[in-house]
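Example record used in the benchmark description.
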Amino acid sequence: MKIELIGGYEKNELETRIQKVAAAGKLSRFPGNVFEVLDSCNDYEKNLKLVKRIIGMGHKSIIEHDYLVFALCDVTPIVEQTIIGNRLTSFTIKSRREVDFRNAGFYVPEFRNKDLQPHEKNEDLKEKYISHMKYLFNTYGDIADAGINVEDARFILPYSFHANIIMGLNARELEKMIIYLTRGQVSEIAELKEFGENLYRLVKDYAPYLIDGIETANGSNTQFEYMESIIERPEIKIIDKPQLISYTPDADDVILKSSIMYHFQCSEKEAENLLENATKKDSDYKAKSMNIILHKEERRELEQVSFTFQIPISLSILTHLTRHRMHSLLVPEFLPMWNMNNYVIPATIKAVPELEKAFITAHDENIKMFEEFKNAGVAEEDLIYFYLGCQMLNVTTTMNGRTLQWILRLRCCNKAQWQIRAIAKEIAKQVQEVSPLLGKGLGATCMTDLVCYEGKECCGLVDKLIEAQKNK
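Model output (structure tokens):
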């Protein structure tokens, strides 16, 4: 892997970055306006000393003003999926829907035994692993060459393939990430620890005020030990479709009452009476009011309700959900290993018997190789690269109404990938059943507002809907 800081590392840039952080630390307690405080922070060494002292006292909000952008080259989706869980971090990732990955390359671990020591047959194992990974990549290429879009061919790609990412985050999130990667639950995965250590080496030069906090932090590797001691591990079963497992009761009325409370500064009880009276004056008041809220620039009222779902999804498509940062997503850890027999085959591949056979054969061969390595005593932490994109898992998330509307307007679109589109449409359907007024605003914008923002890439459905509306 190769990790580089993009900009902000030249001497003058570094001094300016530290000046901003020092000024933020100095602003609340020193006389003068913000510009005078900035001007007073003109000594790099003094600024660095001040920042270290302030964050050493636990006041770390000031380092959120230091924003760093990194280029990550040749890391795997294991790294990608781990770091993307940092909700305040921004990522741009090379698309697997648009780019052919057969020549992307792949990660080769130094195989370890169950004690995380070098495996005595490491070199032999690596030779077998490399041959097997080439076979999987060749299968991917054969499927793509047969006319299947790479967005479906990728379901046979192993999670060892190289990804490239631009990652931006503030220094406080960077500190948390480094501690998690180097000392936390995931630090026993060699690639993740290496990534964390590479970030730390850059921090030493370009964000030196973080060093003390990172070096004195305690990691945690006991997150689930107590749970495991009490609960017997059940068989992993993938649910057949998204399931709404909890939600705000009477969500439509909660949204409408919050709008009245917000505007009139009245109590919840009074808002309830006002809503009832308004409905008596105009039987369509609730629908009209909700429509206004759904189309406001600020839709804070929608944030007053929430919906919790369990969702079955493949590894190939997981980032389509995780990239939406403003929801509370729980994704299973890569370890312990999941049931490798829970997988999905894209319909385009199923439609061609010889391709379906090649896909299933590759999948079965992958499980055989995984079992061979497992029986040879290879650490689970090194077996995770046998996961394939077709691997299915259950995730859980809670979204407020505003986030729900935003996600579904993108993921219900005909241009969205087929699996995430099916998930989004099922979510919209289930929310509409318990919150019909909010539900009217959920879905692709062509369906909810008769408008499309895709420009030249529009699928054309909106034109048909507008024409149908005219002919009513």
